[in-house]
Amino acid sequence: MSNYSIAKIYPNDRFANSQIEKLLQEEGIRRDPNLDYTCGMYDEDMNIIATGSLFGNTLRCMAVSHLHQGEGLMNEIVTHLIEIQFERGNTHLFLYTKCDTAKFFGDLGFSEIARVSDQLVFMENKRTGFSDYLRKLQNNCSKNAQNIAALVMNANPFTNGHLYLVEKAAAENDILHLFMVSEDASLVPYSVRKRLIMKATSHLPNICYHDSGPYIISNATFPSYFQKDESSVITGHALLDLTIFKSIAQTLHINRRYVGEEPTSQVTGIYNQIMAEELPKSDIECIIVPRLEYNGTAISASTVRQAIHDGKIDSIKPLVPEATYKFFTNSEADEIIKKIQEHENVIHY
After folding, report:
1. 137 and 248 in contact (C-beta within 8 Å)?
2. Could you tell me where the DSSP H helices lie in 27-140?
3. Do 149 and 169 form a contact (C-beta atoms < 8 A)?
4. What is the C-alpha to C-alpha distance for residues 286 and 86, in angstroms, rounded to an integer?
5. Could you read off the pLDDT of 41-68 as tens digits, one per residue?
6. Whether the Cβ atoms of residue 239 and residue 119 lie closer than 8 Å to each other
7. Integer Cα distance of 69 and 24 in angstroms
8. What is the C-alpha separation between 88 and 284, in angstroms, rounded?
9. What are 73-111's pLDDT values in tens digits?
């Protein structure tokens, strides 16, 4: 152990945060916008020589000054961050790291889930975490058939566009595995999103519903801090997500994945392009479905959120299933509506 001290860095501590920004830049790391805890390690002169951060149950933005590498400081930062996570009640932890540092974190007890060659590695602190997840999926729905499809859906909230996509995939396949993004990083909580999805699709008998868990990665949990530009971030996210999805597909014998087209979204466009290129290499057909339109405009959850934000609840009626409309016109939705209306930007691309 070093004689250096580790302390929490508060958002309003401008001097400490400027030191951390400088340290991260020097080590080739961009500060992630999604952080809920940051620490700094101080030397005897109160200079920050190492740092690390948390977001949810992930460890991120960890760096040691090149002037102090080889002193075991990263080990101390990681130990500190894990202690904070355990105090929060988070015991299943995840991190993303560069390929050349994966062995270091492996020695600290983290196991590899997936990697994108020459880019990044996704790791967790449970040796059988991912294999246990795959086993749970299999137990949830182990049916076999000729055509088995998958859909991954956030549904923030569930719209007629989502319903159209689900109905199409269910009609064209023997079994549809519907993965609902269970991370609570959306304006509509997962408990509500899940209920609305299942209620609106209850007439379809061949759906197997799955919580996505921590392995189907959302934009909020995916790291951008050690990738050089936005295009690299999107590409890295897509390749990592698809690497994990291929393992899921192999377990459940999935041979088709459906995705909705979104012409106005650069992120979705790049993601869909990579999916269309990569999935067939694993004998998985990628089916990109044109968006359902209303009055000549594609129906999207962003449009629905914007209408709610603007206080035009009645205008969402033709855009959403009855279950979604009933929810948002009931007092149960008051807190969520307030949250959406207080949010500065509800259009996500």
Report:
1. yes
2. 73-88, 102-107, 129-140
3. yes
4. 40
5. 999 999 999 999 999 899 999 999 999 9
6. yes
7. 14
8. 40
9. 999 999 999 999 999 999 999 998 888 889 999 999 999
